[in-house]
């Protein structure tokens, strides 16, 4: 399908190939991350960081998306693909793309980034490139700190092939007994708790596996070490819990976390110099097919490059940015300001610490605050918000915390938080059976001087995570509006009690009212356009894959309504197709901050209706999560949000543009919107 081709439509029928494949769309998002690493206008260490992010992203893609697809195919479960292609065809296609991008990633580091780092006196060397004194230093370090934690495992009739944990780096070693003439296979695991790249001198580093490989004779004394090769496996890390039959979600999840460590292998990465016989042994023992073997230039696992990106070389990183505190100055009375007006904060440009975090911390110690209710999906390792909630409970306030213990890859951390909060006297709930609690809500109930009770609400697009709030772009609405307070209170009652409230004044709540609420408003834009009234749809979100939402946008486009979509990651909609979506534009921005906010704007006949909240337009968000959008009513705040979306779609803004084929392109030059926003907030 190309721009020049029209789509044959019969009545209101839509073509069967109108959806892009979501897995391929995700891979092409990560390819844009790789393109950032290839951007010479970015500071060098930031390019290194994007190489690390690419690796981490791809790991998660295999652990969850590829793993889930392989499991469903293997077990005969029904598989729904966005594009409608057979799942085996999709799997083969995305595996080929993933291999292509992985190879580009590894080669770019080796051929471009490593030489550029060397010019700046930052060298990542292999063992044979080290100087004599540096090798001696590593020998001493090996004896003192590395050797004691290594456990070589040989495979022989008495020792079966060892379990290889997911994301671990390993050495496959061939050793020969010179007396018996017998050759054995052995595995040495590279310790994850040691530095991925060992410093041998200022600005000079060597991969940890190279240091271990150079000392294999100490691990196998009396044996001849014939060869060694680095390899790495990725395992299925997706969790499956039937909440309808489990009696204790917490205990069941803890058991599943232990089981997840032993998930099937979905990817085997090996250095491209590996001996074919060793590779045959690995694939046989791990029970994997050739299709999931990824031969790459070493060193493997470039996610460890984040340590290089963290080096103290400010001339090769982004200039330091300090978030603004102008929305809520430190000397202002927070509660008085919120009583006087709604506040819209835009992180990281507006300080999370000085606004959202401050609300919870001041509420914890304010004697007039009676209760605090909060959702926690992800938070930081040492969370000031959790500490504040504990302090509030210690002070005798009623503290209710809805902790989502099924937040992917944060399950164990959230279990720990939940137990810590419970021990402090907080009322901890785990949400609703069968649904993840993904909404970002905080509610403070305060007794005012006149004896009345007032609700102070926060509804956000991002997690209550002080660390990521400095890196993720998000919005939050702070308000004492009575309708919002009543709605948020009703959501908490829904989460902690046994109720099904579906009528809200200023909220759309998934899984009941969010999708139909958005689709109804899209249909209203169609009616307004047909009536000659101003009509337009503008969305900003992370992902768009829900077929009903996409079809509603297609109908709007066919009716003549302009649709602008500002989407960071996955997009299964084909824009710019004559007869289907010629009135739809899709843009994407990647940069210093992770675009994370969700904003939905409807022109509404010239009086824009604006919503913000936690929900992306995906099945899981609309059907299997508790998500919340709040309608923003303040004129200045509506103008700020609509202006942001318009600036993102402007032809002069540096963004990626999506073609009908699902390919992204970015014109040269243009305005960096994130840089502009930083300048404005400075």
Automatic annotation (TrEMBL):
This enzyme's EC code(s): 2.7.4.1
Range of residues in the leader sequence: none
Record PTM: An intermediate of this reaction is the autophosphorylated ppk in which a phosphate is covalently linked to a histidine residue through a N-P bond.
Domain of life: Bacteria
Listed Gene3D superfamilies: Endonuclease Chain A, Polyphosphate kinase middle domain, Polyphosphate kinase N-terminal domain
Enzyme class: transferase
Binding site residues for ATP: 57, 472, 568, 596
Cofactor(s) annotated in UniProt: Mg(2+)
Active site: 438
Binding site for Mg(2+): 378, 408
Function text: Catalyzes the reversible transfer of the terminal phosphate of ATP to form a long-chain polyphosphate (polyP).
Protein name per the record: Polyphosphate kinase
Organism: Glycomyces buryatensis
Gene from which the chain derives: ppk
